[in-house]
Write a structure and sequence with these properties.
single chain, 9-stranded mixed β-sheet, 9 strands
């Protein structure tokens, strides 16, 4: 169905899947040693995510490298189109959400939203990074205008990688915007995560907004927790139902299994203590990919290294030559693969990688 001003709304099936909880990996960028797009491996990654059972993909986001928008690379439309083509070709018989990263000042964001909508993307992950000169009201108005074109996935980005701290009042107004369908919370901060959840729960649109974790340091705990607040004198509960994560760009089939197991665990009368051990293991495995030990410098190459080890990528190259693995990071990834084989999907990838790499 179509909303006012032409925005295409989610199908009922996709809406229900979004609120049930999807595993949405943030799509990396496959490059050759010459730092040119490796189309064969770019398409193979999309095929890998679908075969892994992911509920969607997020393309042109941080993991895809913001430099794809730079004139010297001019890859934004190309990578968005390629992913959409692979999803269409697969003709999946289950809900699958294509999320396009949208960033920049208002006019740029509107252009990117129109492009994504034209290419058949169902939602836009709207970044507020790099907009420190915008007031809260300007950010809200930007969101309203983008939401007239494509359903919006809000995005709370941690300050250490370009985000900024937003107030409870901001998120309360954000939740009221027609066309906001979900919010990815990635402040890597429990206080700020709780503020977003409480703001959404106090909105009249509470039931229309799905909460997703982007807190790579707290994935399992986020997904297992029932959040409960007083709203107008009544106890209201809400969950973080799924994740849109760079962490899930690697070892994806195991991430999908993890989310499905968590959904089952939520129905149990008591939570087994083993879940807290697993939560720590997932955080440890994330740390070697995202490289907090070096202020996240190696976060994109870390994902690439995990995929390279499996044969999905040829190398860890990024468009920015300065982005490379930090000292000792490859060894730490090796340690995690040895320590937590239950989180690593090497066998699944080995079985199918040649099939995914076919033209």
């Amino acid at each position: 169905m179509t909303a006012a001003k032409g925005r295409i709304e989610l199908s009922e099936q996709l809406y229900e899947a979004l609120h049930d909880g999807l595993a949405i990996p943030a799509h990396p960028l496959a490059l050759t040693a010459e730092r040119k797009l490796d189309e064969r491996r770019q398409r193979a990654l999309t095929r890998y995510y679908m075969a892994s059972g992911a509920g969607g993909i997020a393309v042109a986001v941080h993991s895809t490298q913001f430099e794809i928008r730079d004139p010297e690379h001019n890859l934004l439309e190309t990578v968005l189109r390629m992913a959409a083509e692979e999803v269409e070709r697969a003709a999946l018989d289950r809900p699958f959400m294509k999320v396009a990263g949208i960033c920049g000042e208002t006019e740029q964001a509107l252009r990117e939203a129109r492009l994504a909508a034209d290419l058949g993307y169902e939602a836009g992950l709207l970044s507020m990074g790099g907009l420190s000169h915008y007031s809260d009201e300007e950010l809200l108005e930007r969101t309203r205008r983008v939401a007239e074109i494509i359903p919006v996935f809000g995005f709370y980005l941690q300050p250490s990688v370009g985000g900024r701290i937003m107030s409870f009042d901001f998120w309360r107004k954000f939740a009221d915007i027609d066309g906001v369908i979900a919010i990815k919370m990635a402040p890597f901060n429990r206080y700020q995560t709780l503020e977003v959840i409480r703001a959404v729960m106090e909105s009249s649109r509470c039931d229309e907004i799905a909460l997703y974790t982007g807190n790579d340091d707290n994935i399992v705990s986020d997904l297992l927790t029932t959040f409960r607040f007083d709203v107008n004198g009544e106890k209201v509960e809400k969950r973080i139902v799924g994740g849109l994560l760079g962490h899930w760009a690697a070892w994806t089939s195991k991430a999908v299994e993890l989310l499905e197991d968590i959904k089952k665990a939520r129905t149990e009368p008591q939570l087994a203590a083993e879940w807290m051990t697993l939560a720590a293991e997932v955080t440890d495995s994330n740390a070697v990919l995202f490289d907090p030990a070096h202020n996240f410098h190696g976060c994109i190459p870390g994902i690439h290294e995990a995929l390279r080890r499996q044969g999905l990528l040829e190398g860890t190259w990024c468009l920015n030559p300065e982005e490379k693995l930090s000292p000792g990071q490859a060894e730490e990834i090796e340690r995690v693969c040895r320590s937590y084989p239950h989180l690593i999907d090497d066998a699944f990838v080995a079985q199918h990688v040649e099939e995914w790499l076919k033209p």
